[in-house]
Every structure is written in structure tokens, then in C-alpha cells.
Design goal:
- The complex is a heterodimer.
- Chain A is built from twelve helices and two strands, in the order αααααββααααααα.
- By secondary structure, chain A is mostly helical.
- In chain A, a hairpin with a 2-residue loop joins β1 and β2.
- The N and C termini of chain A lie far apart (about 40 Å).
- In chain B, β1 and β2 form a beta hairpin.
- In chain B, α2 packs antiparallel against α5.
- The chains are: A mainly alpha, B mainly alpha.
- The interface between A and B is large, with 40 and 34 residues.
């Protein structure tokens, strides 16, 4: 039972990440491979605020999201100058730079040693220290994020985003300042990812830079490509599928070194196969 | 394309780890490697061979691209795939062959690195990115540009870690890429 709760918590965290990236990649058509950077910033800000300054978890989530928003505004502004494959490469670059900062600013992040002993959240004396209550908290947040994303995608703002994806010049002619829209959705996606990071830090109670590499960004990207771009239910489905998949492989009974690689192999192969035979994913409406 | 190739990269990397473990391995040259001195700087025999082969490959590629029919076909496909199809170039075959040659040169570089510093399964990603950065800052579609970009990247990285610590190498490389993409997206040498 404890094991199932663990999987459900991880599934919810990755659902939040997938939804956040889907808004950027799926709805707006910006192939961003830097989501793990924002995930990491959220996690680190929460971890530092909780361990060093002893600030309440819910306040540090908000502060983490604000700091991530500031950073993503800067990154998004630079990225907005790029198009197509260069956009993907540039975003790649920012992920590497942010990872280097986690790894090397020893005084702030303790570098490769990581930050241990992060507290579980508590609110007005109500503690979420056992896994079940934590699951409820994460699940509620995931649902909230889902509803926010749903609201965004159905609003007139969301329709503009989809038009940018389909034909940016056409909507520019109608007088929409498309770079503002792209920047705004990039920042919103980054803030959502930072919320996921805060939950991750507080759940595992330990973080180190190795969680927030490019591989993590590619993993999140494969979730939304598998589930379907520009489809929120697809993101949820993809997250659940790719979280459960390695667990199934674990029961097949490979030795641990091989099992860990099997997981990487399977999602890499999935990406290739999907690109060849079903580029829109399971439920998607948009092909990359 | 870019997503599928990332998928291929992760698959091959995982397979390498499964067969050869994730340990760091070195190829030995057999016997002590000789060391040369040029203007007071030290260079090993292996590094000298790498330098010479790099220049040699640049020369051969430049000649093939300029003088042969195959090279002209490559330039045509790069310029406009549709039109080259119309004039009777088998574009898929050209693309396949270019991919093959490119992979072969990359494989050669891998062997050299094995002799020089050693290999590990996860090194591919950072080397790939360095290669991409070098070709973008040098100028896409220009052999000399690629070499120039690679040298510039190497110098900036290593002079950079002279001033700040060595772990920032990757960040410096990507910083350089982003500066170039912003201010000179066509690279040093324009095609």
C-alpha cells in the first residue's frame, strides 16, 4: 500500500510537470527542452527556504514560483529570438547552464552533496508528514493545475496560443503581439514546474543536482509526446504510463544495473517509434 | 527529427551501459606515449595525431564538397531539396550517405578521445552538444567554419576555466552559443 501511495505521489508530480510543458510545447508549439531547470529552481528555492530560513512550505512554494517566474522571464526573452531547431538548442543550453549553477554554487546549494533534511509541509498545525496525507495534498494541487491549464487552453488567450502554433504570421497581421503571448505562457509553464519541484523536494526530503539534468527534460518531453501534444488528459495518461512502466520492468526481474538502463532504453525507443508511426501521441491533436 | 534523434541517443547510450557497464574506460597506446615540445608547450603523440587528422579531414571534405559531383549534389540538397529532386538527384540516397559519412567521422573522433582521455557511456551527450555549438558558431554549411568554431570554442572554454573553476566549462560553452545565436546567428563564416 505504501508502495502504491509512493507511485501515486510521483505520478501526480510528473502530471504537473507534463501539463506545464504541454502548455508550452503542445499549445504554443515552442519546442522547449528546459523544463527540468525550472523544476530544479522550484525544488532548490523550497529546500533552501525550508532548511536554512525555516519558512512555511506554502509560503516557500509561492516564493519559489515567483523566483522561477523572474528567471524564466529572462530565459524566455532570450529564447524568443530563436526559431525552430535553434529554439530547442537554445533551451537545451539554458538547462545545462542552470544545472551548472546548481552544481557549482557550493555556498547556496551545497553542490553535488545536495540538501538533506527538508521538512514535510504543515499548515496551521495540520501536518502532512505521512505519505497518505501528502498524496492528498499533491493530488489536489495536480487537479488545481489541471483546471488552471484547462481554463487557459479554453480561454481566448489559449486560442491565440494555438493560432501562434499554426500560423504565427497570420495572427501577427491581426495585430496580436505574439512574442508577449509566447513569453507569458513560457513563464506560466515555468511557474507550474517550480510547484512540482517544491513538492518533489519536500516529498523525497533530499535533493541534489543530478535530478535536474537534460535527461529529466527529455523524460518530461517524452511524457507529453506519448500522451499527446495539446491534450491535457493525454499528459496525465502519459505521466501515469511512464511512471508505472519502469515498475513493471522491475517485477520482470532484471538485475538493478540493467533494470535502470531498461527504463531509459524503453522511453528512448518509445520516442523513436512514436515519431515514426504516431507523431501526435495517444490523444494528441498536434504533430511536432 | 530532433526528438526522434534524441530518442536514438538515449537508446544507444542505454545499450552501451548494459554491455560495457557505466565505468570510465581508457584505451592504451601500448608503450609510453611520446611527448613533443612546441614553443615550450607540451603535446603528446596522440594529441598531435588528432590535430593532424582533424586538419586532414577538413581538407578532404572541402575538396570532396567543391570538386566532385557528389559534393555538388550535397550542396544542392542543402540549398533546396524539392528542386534537386526535380532535376533528378536521388535526395534520399544523398542524405543517407551524408549521414553515414558524418557518423563515420564522429566514430573516428570517439576512438581518438578513447586514446587521449578515456571514454564513458554518458560522454556522448556533452560531446554532441559541443559539436553542434562548434558548427553553429563557426557557420552552418561551411567546413572551415566548423574547424574555426571548434578552435574558438576550445580556446574560450579553456581560457574561461583559467579565470573561474573547471566545472563551469559546459556553462561557458552554452553561454557562447547563446551569445552567438543572439548577435550573429549565421556564425563566424557565412555561407
Amino acid at each position: 500500500m505504501e508502495y502504491l501511495i509512493h507511485l501515486a505521489i510521483l505520478g501526480s508530480i510528473y502530471t504537473i510537470l507534463a501539463i506545464s510543458l504541454n502548455l508550452v510545447v503542445g499549445y504554443t508549439g515552442l519546442l522547449s527542452i528546459t523544463q527540468a531547470a525550472f523544476y530544479g529552481i522550484g525544488a532548490y528555492v523550497t529546500a533552501i527556504l525550508l532548511t536554512t530560513y525555516d519558512i512555511n512550505f506554502f509560503i516557500s512554494i509561492v516564493l519559489g514560483a515567483l523566483i522561477t517566474a523572474a528567471v524564466s522571464l529572462l530565459i524566455g526573452y532570450v529564447l524568443s529570438k530563436f526559431k525552430g531547431d535553434y529554439y530547442a538548442l537554445g533551451s537545451f543550453g539554458f538547462n545545462v547552464i542552470v544545472y551548472s549553477i546548481f552544481l557549482n554554487s557550493q555556498s547556496l546549494t551545497r553542490g553535488p552533496l545536495g540538501i538533506p533534511g527538508i521538512d514535510r509541509p504543515n499548515l496551521f498545525g495540520l501536518s502532512f508528514s505521512d505519505n497518505f496525507s501528502f498524496l492528498i495534498l499533491v493530488a489536489i494541487s495536480a487537479v488545481l493545475i489541471f483546471l488552471i491549464a484547462k481554463f487557459i487552453s479554453n480561454s481566448s488567450f489559449g486560442r491565440v496560443l494555438k493560432t501562434i502554433r499554426e500560423d504565427e504570421q497570420a495572427i501577427q497581421i491581426f495585430g496580436y503581439k505574439t512574442h508577449q503571448y509566447k513569453l507569458l505562457i513560457f513563464v506560466i509553464g515555468a511557474m507550474m514546474a517550480s510547484v512540482a519541484g517544491a513538492f518533489f523536494a519536500s516529498y523525497i526530503t533530499f535533493i541534489d543536482p543530478s535530478t535536474f539534468t537534460i535527461n529529466e527534460s527529455i523524460f518530461i518531453l517524452s511524457i507529453i509526446i506519448l500522451g499527446g501534444l495539446a491534450n491535457l488528459r493525454g499528459s496525465v495518461l502519459g505521466a501515469i504510463f511512464l511512471i508505472l512502466l519502469p515498475e513493471v520492468l522491475r517485477f520482470v526481474g532484471f538485475p538493478s544495473e540493467i533494470a535502470a538502463q531498461m527504463r531509459v532504453l524503453v522511453y528512448g525507443a518509445l520516442l523513436v517509434i512514436l515519431m515514426m508511426y504516431r507523431p501526435q501521441g495517444l490523444l494528441g491533436e498536434y504533430k511536432l | 527529427m530532433i526528438v526522434a534523434s534524441l530518442g536514438v541517443l538515449t537508446v544507444i547510450q542505454a545499450i552501451i551501459v548494459m554491455f560495457f557497464t557505466s565505468q570510465f574506460q581508457t584505451l592504451s597506446t601500448g608503450g609510453g606515449s611520446r611527448v613533443f615540445e612546441i614553443f615550450g608547450a607540451v603535446i603528446t603523440q596522440v594529441q598531435l595525431i588528432i590535430l593532424i587528422s582533424g586538419l586532414l579531414i577538413m581538407g578532404i571534405l572541402a575538396i570532396v564538397l567543391k570538386k566532385t559531383l557528389f559534393g555538388k549534389a550535397i550542396n544542392a540538397v542543402a540549398d533546396d531539396e524539392e528542386v534537386s529532386k526535380i532535376v533528378g538527384i536521388d535526395t534520399n540516397r544523398i542524405i543517407g550517405r551524408v549521414f553515414f559519412i558524418g557518423s563515420m567521422i564522429a566514430g573516428l573522433a570517439g576512438i581518438f578521445i578513447g586514446f587521449d582521455t578515456g571514454i564513458e557511456p554518458t560522454m556522448g551527450m556533452s560531446l554532441l552538444l559541443k559539436g553542434v555549438i562548434a558548427s553553429i558558431i563557426g557557420g552552418i554549411g561551411n567546413i572551415y567554419g566548423g574547424v574555426l568554431g571548434a578552435f574558438l570554442l576550445g580556446f574560450v572554454e579553456n581560457f574561461g576555466i583559467w579565470k573561474i573553476s573547471g566545472e563551469w566549462k559546459d556553462a561557458i560553452a552554452f553561454g557562447l552559443l547563446i551569445i552567438f545565436l543572439l548577435f550573429r546567428p549565421q556564425g563566424i563564416l557565412r555561407k
